[in-house]
Amino acid sequence: MNQSLVLAIALSLSFGAQAADVRDRVVDRVSQPLKGREVYMQSCAMCHSPGTGGAPRPGVSEDWAERARKGPAELMISVLRGKGAMPPKGGNASLSRTEAYLALDYMLNGDK
Ligand code: HEC
Questions:
Q1: From ligand 1's centre to the CA of 53, what distance in Å?
Q2: Closest Cα partner for 48 from 92, 94, 93, 112?
Q3: Cβ–Cβ < 8 Å for 63, 56
Q4: Rounded to whole angstroms, how far apart are CA atoms 48 and 37?
Q5: Ligand 1: does its nearest atom lie under 6 Å from the Cβ of 100?
Q6: Closest to 98 measured CA to CA, from 83, 76, 81
């Protein structure tokens, strides 16, 4: 292998890594999961991260085993109407239905 070929490969590798970085950041910004995470952090995390009052914790499968069986549509109804100790939209009436859904999707699926 001659030197310029080695250089070309090294360059393309480092540019490739940079491009992947940029792509990840752009995808993060335009895709819904980031928004879902934001809504979750602002309006849901205070109860759901610690599991206050029996709030199901994201990523803790035993908290979701029964609830997941209902399917996302019915879970969404709980979010909009409230359930037990959870007020409608987690108490943040300014959330749009879409934002509430994105938060639910983030809770169920994480940052995918
Ligand atoms: C004030 C605390 C609190 C906040 C804020 C809150 N929740 Fe909850 N959430 C709960 C509690 C407690 C439950 C368990 C209710 C029950 O099953 O009786 C619950 C249950 C749920 C469930 C399961 C519903 C079902 O039918 O089993 C979902 C989904 C959910 N919350 C989503 C959200 C989302 C999305 C947000 C933010 C927009 C949010 N919650 C904000 C306390 C909260």
A1: 9
A2: 92
A3: yes
A4: 13
A5: yes
A6: 76
Q: What predicted TM-score, i.e. pTM, was given to this entire model?
A: 0.78
pLDDT in single tens digits along all 112 residues of the chain = 566 766 666 656 666 666 666 666 655 555 544 699 999 999 999 999 999 999 999 999 999 999 989 999 999 999 999 999 999 999 999 999 999 999 999 999 988 7
- Residue 37 Cβ inside 6 Å of ligand 1? The answer reads no
Which among 106, 97, 112 is positioned nearest to 44, based on CA atoms? Answer: 106
- Written as six digits, the tokens of 71 are 């399917």
Angle, vertex CA 11, rays to CA 6 and CA 16, nearest 5: 125
**Angle (CA) 83 88 92, round 5°:** 140
* Interatomic CA distance for residues 62 and 53, integer angstroms: 16
